[in-house]
């Protein structure tokens, strides 16, 4: 997509601007055609009321003209909506393709709760907002303008006083509306802020309900929500109350009886003065009655335009996401060694999270990354599948800088099981086969067995054909084991295991550990674990602190050294034995 200084909405619509213009022109012609029958009816009245015998030929011609105009109006409107729907369809298809193309190329680390929410909003709501604008409002707006404008011109042609008669109530509406809109932007900003407070209070109340109730503070939390709602209602009422009179006045000025009364009263005066005929007054009344609908449509069009502009801005910012740079001359990695050479990394505009890390993970070995929370373990591990690119230094897989490996080749080499394993919508089999589509049933079952999840899957109503979220609802530990089965089937020679047992209960953890041991066999494994007991057998342990490797070695060597690892180990074994004793005491 070409990003220029033009507004995003203009840029998004540009490829289909021709079709939209065609729709708008047809819509205008359609609106003019539907005006003709009204004018023809007035002219028909003149012929019928003319003194002498009725001119039947003229009556027939006018009747035919009415029929033709109706047909033409209907045809043009239909074609106009067809053109704009086609434009919308093309624009949406190309935007969806573009979104998939761009989002498929961003680094995996780009995805966070915030960006995933933005993608969901773009696909669900923002494209819908663009649809309303492109497919409907442009045509409706032009029709809403052309119809009364044509009518007013006709009145002007009849007598300029008739045109004024048709718009006699508009100044009242315009003054009331202008007064209502005074300071609208500021007031809306204040209301938005108050409404955000209400939303935040609801989220806080709902998310924290268990903690709040457990500590007997539900009254206080509910009070926070009530205060936010009260503030919002007071602000809203303070704004709306004075507007009600103006709103009533402007609605009155546009109501059918008021328009009819004022045009008829004015018309009677015109008639008395001999300026116009009775049919001219009828024409002015008809045009006057069409005006409220015009204003309503224009108002809706403005809202649609504003929503579409905001939606286009959000879509454009997603489309501007930086893709993962891909080498023009990719190289193929050989073997499954993972090397970090003087690696430093910082998140965008943030302080340095990793500095000068060098580490070598040989094929067939397990390397554990341990350290305090926030030390940088996950960040380091995720540099291997290029969730992010290093700020300095090099990460190599199979002897090749990961930036020089084609992403598909890299993902074929490096698999990962994360703390919050994700299952995609589909059957259990689809989920296990994700890394090797088309794998046969025997291979799927073998992987599930090795991941200690086969029996649980068989217990589901439709076994491997059960659908996630429908008849397959897994616990956190079971989800982990499904994702381990997926990794086993994908059979990547390098594995990143980021606290794969973090949310598991002791029994589930034992199952996951069993499954992980099978998974780790013969692969290069980089494992992150908070529970040090689970990595005592690792071939090497790197202790990370403040983004640096402060110690490195086997469990025994690190215990002997008496540094940070030994301190963490003593702390954990002390806490666990304390916990164990307390549990035993409780059981006794
Ligand atoms: N997407 C992100 N954007 C900005 N900063 C981040 C991001 N992810 C992590 N960080 C920061 O980087 C630092 C290291 O985080 P990281 O998750 O790598 O630590 P960790 O050792 O794995 O911690 P834990 O054991 O708690 O998972 C932390 O200060 C964290 O706040």
Automatic annotation (TrEMBL):
Domain ABC transmembrane type-1: 22-291
GO CC list: plasma membrane
Entry membrane topology: Multi-pass membrane protein
Cellular location(s): Cell membrane
Transmembrane annotation, as ranges: 20-42, 62-87, 163-180, 251-272, 278-298
Keyword Transport: yes
This protein's UniProt keywords: ATP-binding, Cell membrane, Membrane, Nucleotide-binding, Transmembrane, Transmembrane helix, Transport
Keyword Cell inner membrane among record annotations: no
InterPro entries: AAA+_ATPase, ABC1_TM_dom, ABC1_TM_sf, ABC_transporter-like_ATP-bd, P-loop_NTPase, Type_1_exporter
Gene Ontology molecular function, alphabetical: ABC-type transporter activity; ATP binding; ATP hydrolysis activity; ATPase-coupled lipid transmembrane transporter activity
Main location class: membrane
Domain spans labelled ABC transporter: 338-571
Protein name according to UniProt: ABC transporter, transmembrane region
Species of the source: Nitrococcus mobilis Nb-231
Taxonomic lineage of the native organism: Bacteria, Pseudomonadati, Pseudomonadota, Gammaproteobacteria, Chromatiales
